[in-house]
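Q: Here's a chain of 219 amino acids. Please give me its 3D structure as C-alpha cells.
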Amino acid sequence: MRKKLFSFAIPALFTAVVVVSCNKDKPLTSESNEVATTKDGSQYTLDTLNSKVEWKGYKVFKSENTSHFGTIKFESGDVTVKDGKLESGKFVADMNSLTSVDLKDDADQLGKLNGHLKSGDFFEVEKFPTASYEITKVTPVAEGDYNTLLDGNLTIKGITKLASFKANVSVKNGEVSVATEPKDIKREEFGVKFQAPAENGVIKDEVTLQINVKALEKK
C-alpha cells in the first residue's frame, strides 16, 4: 500500500500525525537573496475538489507497528506559470477538514481520533485553522522518478520551516498538477510534541506527508 500524507499522534489506540517539514534553516521569502518569488506569468487557481494532502502517522507498540492515515483538504491556493513552466505557488490547507481514512467505518473511534488531533495536544485547530506550503523555487530534475524539486516554506501551528519535496509537475491544456513524493518529517519541529503513556506504545516523531494538487488557468 502506498504511503499517505500528514501524520499525527494519539494515546492508546491512536497514532501521531503531523504535517510536513524539513530543515531548520531560515525560511525563504520573496525578499530572500536565495530566492525571489515572482508573480509574472499566467495565474492558475487551485481546484480544491481535486486537491488534498495525505498523511500517515506511526506508533510502535511493543514489537508491533501500528499506524493511522488520512487526508486534509485545501481551502485555497494558486500557482504561477511562466513560459510553460511552474514558477511559484501557495497552497492553504483547511485543518478542520483533517480526518482519518483508516477509521472511516468506525464512527466512534473516528470521532475520538479526529477530535484529539484537532485539540491542543496536536494541531490546535481552533487557534491555527490553516496550514500552508509556499513554493519559492522550482528546479527541473533530469533523472529519477520525479521531474522537479520544490523548495519552499511550510507553516504549521504558526511555525514556518524550509521544506523541499521531489514532485512530478505537469503543465498542459490549462491545468497544472503537482504530486509530491511521500516524505517523512518531524512533527515536534512544528510544536506537536504529544506523547502517549509509555505502556501504550511510543508515538514516532516521524510522519509521512504527500501533497497532490491541481490548479486551473484563470480565464
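Q: Can you summarize the key feature?
A: Helices lie at 107-117.
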